[in-house]
């Protein structure tokens, strides 16, 4: 029996152990202050990151868990931030291994907690506005690839963001199975922020969406038969970048970046009280666990584009590429 190359690719991909294919946000660093995340389903300590129950992905764009993750629980802390603050995010695989995927976008949203303390806020009622999205780099690799290589992702809050308490929702949409409808894997994570300062910027009503609600399993950026073909431009799902966060960019992308470098220790811990933080630069960590507070200087800034240039190669996930090369040569 002669198999098609695509069929063999699907078979090879399905053989990858599922335990290696899941993960969570293990820590965030905001202006040099580290907030440690709790392992999914594990013991709980004070954190600004809402704890989820499992490292498994959310399946289905209308699944309730696409909001903040499976059984996400309110956190005890609010992470202090200011307009323009730098937020560095560390994604880890199960057992604090490296993030296992390299295909698909990273997308970030904010929502005001309003008059409700964020520690009590039900995120299913949140009205989200998009502040950042990262797809492919100019060389055709996804920004997500850097996470698989031990890097982190860094973005900035809008420069004119009004003071107040906010939920931040950051997600990876893993698309290595998205050539089939329903194959996309959602990995959302929510953080609780206390934003200080005296700015007054708020999103317009047109920028606000609900999650679930903003995505469909039929969206081109979620069901994507051409996801491995860099000749085809990737279309981000959900709304455009909110005007508040657009910074005048016609591309609709913010200034997030991925990077990987050594870390330096810092004396910084989370707090249960709301306050201001003086913005300072942060950089990446190769630490895959949620360990001691850290910050570092120097990061590789890579400009993202909402519309991605056409390229002349097909990029398959790295964890099946060697298998595929052999299969193609014998098909």
From TrEMBL:
Entry-linked InterPro entries: AA9, AA9_LPMO
Family (UniProt): Belongs to the polysaccharide monooxygenase AA9 family.
Listed Gene3D superfamilies: 2.70.50.70
Protein name: lytic cellulose monooxygenase (C4-dehydrogenating)
PANTHER family: ENDOGLUCANASE IV (PTHR33353:SF6), PUTATIVE (AFU_ORTHOLOGUE AFUA_1G12560)-RELATED (PTHR33353)
Keywords annotated in UniProt: Carbohydrate metabolism, Cellulose degradation, Copper, Disulfide bond, Hydrolase, Metal-binding, Monooxygenase, Oxidoreductase, Polysaccharide degradation, Signal
Catalytic activity as recorded in UniProt: [(1->4)-beta-D-glucosyl]n+m + reduced acceptor + O2 = 4-dehydro-beta-D-glucosyl-[(1->4)-beta-D-glucosyl]n-1 + [(1->4)-beta-D-glucosyl]m + acceptor + H2O
Assigned EC number: 1.14.99.56
Family annotation (Pfam families): AA9
Cofactor(s), names only, from the UniProt record: Cu(2+)
Compositionally biased intervals (Low complexity): 247-273, 284-300
Annotated signal sequence range: 1-21
Record field: compositional bias (Basic residues): 301-313
